[in-house]
Amino acid sequence: MSGRARRAGPLADWVVLGAAALFMAAGMLTVRYAETSILRLAAFGLPAWPAYVAGVVEMVAGALLLHGRARPWAAVVLIAVSLAALTLNFAYREPRSGLEALGLMVLAVVVVLLEKKRS
């Protein structure tokens, strides 16, 4: 190989497409079944609206993963949302739900790394 870095191939495109689908679906489920999140927030004395905002942000950022220029920023937003969900799940002593958030966060980190490799 010459001094050029290897470019991410078609597999990277499939990973991003899968990540977008997963994050949009997770956001829809968060909005549709917000009762659990609302009850967890209420246990800490927080209002209900952050549960809906998190779901909408997850859907929008998931969709933005499909747009090349917005992809790195959307992935960073998804990392932040997943970290907040992970923190809330562990604070509420629900480690199994926290693993789902951790998995989504790792997926968003992979998208960031793939984008770094592309450039």
Q: How is this fold's topology laid out?
A:
Blueprint: H1 10-32, H2 35-43, H3 49-64, H4 71-91, H5 95-118
Helix pairs in contact: 1-3, 1-5, 3-4, 4-5
Q: How would you describe the overall organization of this protein?
A:
- This protein has 119 residues and is mainly alpha-helical.
- Helix content is 78%, strand content 0%.
- It contains five helices and no strands.
- It has helices at 10-32, 35-43, 49-64, 71-91, 95-118.
- The longest helix has 24 residues, at 95-118.
- It is elongated, with a radius of gyration of 16 Å.
- 27% of the residues are buried.
- Residues 1-5 have low confidence and may be disordered.
**Content of β-strand:** under 5%
- Topology as a string of helices (H) and strands (E): HHHHH
How many strands in all? 0
**What is the overall silhouette?**
elongated
Helical percent range?
over 70%
Q: Mean pLDDT, rounded to whole units?
A: 87
Q: Please tally the helical runs, counting DSSP H or I stretches of 4 or more residues.
A: 5
Radius of gyration over all CA atoms, rounded = 16 Å
Q: Structural class of the secondary elements?
A: mainly alpha
Sheet having the most strands: none
Name the descriptors.
119 residues; mainly alpha
How do you describe this structure in short?
Helices cover 78% and strands 0% of the residues. It has helices at residues 10-32, 35-43, 49-64, 71-91, 95-118. Residues 1-5 have low confidence and may be disordered.
